[in-house]
């Protein structure tokens, strides 16, 4: 739930693009991952509300499955969303990268900052969204929220046979590693250039800006901005929502 007393990040003309065209196979068969429900509400609606909770975000573009734009538009129309924010639904492509590009194509003139947010991160707090916007406004071409790693990480060689043992080849220094979340924030023109220049299908937009040779900076992420990927994540997300209802009336 947004706080209407919160000031908008100054000088920011910001739009959010939410690619929601994936099937989410790791959650099992059924509806696309973004349409699975948390507390009776589709994850996509939670994600849209999370972006619109920031007073700096004036437009949210939802990139729907290629054959599901009408369904997603109906879904948004059937849920209460902040009146100060505009919402647009466009059909997506065959890859996340193509879907983000189609979302960028739908942006009107005058947008300075673009957030790209995973629909599968429905619970990101508004303070994290605002921190990303502010860092871009302060001059960073690309910004990612991220958390330090709790676990030791091993670099391995792929197993010789599927399911076989994997030899460890290195142990990266954990203090220098971060687990990246979304929304990732960008100077609009920089992100458009990245999508025009980088042709490999990549897992996040910040790595595309890295390939342009431009700096990407990190701001603190939040433990509640985790990605809902597996059935256990759904249980954790429901628990977070229950705590918010208890503590905040959310």
TrEMBL record:
GO BP annotations listed: isopentenyl diphosphate biosynthetic process, methylerythritol 4-phosphate pathway
Keywords: Isoprene biosynthesis, Nucleotidyltransferase, Transferase
Pathway as given in its UniProt record: Isoprenoid biosynthesis; isopentenyl diphosphate biosynthesis via DXP pathway; isopentenyl diphosphate from 1-deoxy-D-xylulose 5-phosphate: step 2/6
EC number assigned by the record: 2.7.7.60
InterPro entries: IspD (IPR001228), IspD/TarI (IPR034683), IspD/TarI_cytidylyltransf_bact (IPR050088), ISPD_synthase_CS (IPR018294), Nucleotide-diphossugar_trans (IPR029044)
Annotated site location: Transition state stabilizer: 26, 33
SUPFAM superfamilies, per database record: Nucleotide-diphospho-sugar transferases
Gene Ontology molecular functions: 2-C-methyl-D-erythritol 4-phosphate cytidylyltransferase activity
UniProt keyword Nucleotide-binding, yes or no: no
Catalysed reactions, semicolon-separated: 2-C-methyl-D-erythritol 4-phosphate + CTP + H(+) = 4-CDP-2-C-methyl-D-erythritol + diphosphate
Pfam families: IspD
Keyword Nucleus: no
Site features described as Positions MEP for the nucleophilic attack, chain residue numbers: 174, 227
Function of the molecule: Catalyzes the formation of 4-diphosphocytidyl-2-C-methyl-D-erythritol from CTP and 2-C-methyl-D-erythritol 4-phosphate (MEP).
Recorded family membership: Belongs to the IspD/TarI cytidylyltransferase family. IspD subfamily.
Cross-referenced NCBIfam families: ispD
UniProt protein name: 2-C-methyl-D-erythritol 4-phosphate cytidylyltransferase
Taxonomic source organism: Streptomyces fructofermentans
Gene: ispD
